[in-house]
Design a protein that fits this description.
- By secondary structure, the protein is an alpha/beta fold.
- The protein has a single domain, classed as Rossmann fold (3-Layer(aba) Sandwich).
- It is built from 8 helices and 7 strands.
- Helix 4 crosses helix 8.
- The longest helix is centred in the middle third of the chain and has 15 residues.
Length: 218
């Protein structure tokens, strides 16, 4: 009672505002669902072979998010696995272009959109120019942000619940035989109450989702 009484000395409206202000500072809630399929990838092979990131794919309308997705995901992987040899997307693309493989790289992704397959010969060429045995491909399945009113005073919006949904898919290919050796998906919903016009950034959502997926890697 000693905590609540000072609020009501300010009047009922200010007391209610103070309570709402405290509730708006609540810890964000995270709901996560991770699915992983370990086919044939060991921690030793991954460490020795290294991994290069290919251009991510994305749902229609989210093509501009592919580069930021790869950048944020790679940064988390580098932080969580400091002993792993990692080639970010930008370095992969540079290696491809320097080797004169730009057209072959484009055709590989055109075939992938139709078949879900990466050509084994092309994977071996990519491994040669990057120096990495394993090739990782991210897919942005979905990214949505929404908000809804939670509290108001005299018809004015005071607190909103911000909701962010991120769905990612990661597939790792072995260049030696063209096989998928590991894959995993992550669906994460984050919600928090706010009195400001803020929202969880795309980068933050990727980082949290990446952390969940990476924790399951060998």
């Amino acid at each position: 009672m000693s905590v609540i009484r000072p609020f009501f000395r300010l009047g009922p409206t200010l007391a209610l505002f103070a309570v709402l202000l405290l509730s708006a500072c609540a810890t964000p809630q995270v709901y996560s669902s991770t699915q992983v399929r370990e086919i044939h990838l060991t921690a030793r092979d991954l460490k020795q072979g290294g991994i290069a990131f290919l251009t991510p794919s994305s749902a229609t309308g989210q093509e501009e998010d592919k580069q930021p997705l790869a950048l944020a995901f790679t940064a988390v992987l580098e932080k969580e696995r400091p002993g792993l040899r990692i080639m970010p997307l930008s370095e992969t693309l540079s290696a491809v272009n320097k080797a004169g493989l730009a057209n072959d790289y484009r055709r590989m992704f055109e075939d992938y959109r139709l078949t879900g397959l990466f050509d084994r010969d092309m994977l071996q060429k990519l491994a040669h120019v990057t120096g990495m045995r394993y090739l990782a491909q991210l897919k942005l399945v979905g990214f949505q942000q929404d908000s809804k009113d939670r509290w108001g005073i005299l018809g004015l919006r005071v607190v909103e619940t911000k909701i962010t949904v991120m769905r990612l898919f990661l597939q790792i290919w072995d260049s030696r035989d063209g096989a998928v050796v590991w894959e995993g998906s992550e669906e994460m919903t984050l919600s928090h109450d706010s009195m400001a016009e803020d929202a969880l950034t795309f980068k933050s959502a990727v980082e949290q989702s990446a952390g969940k997926l990476i924790s399951h890697l060998p």
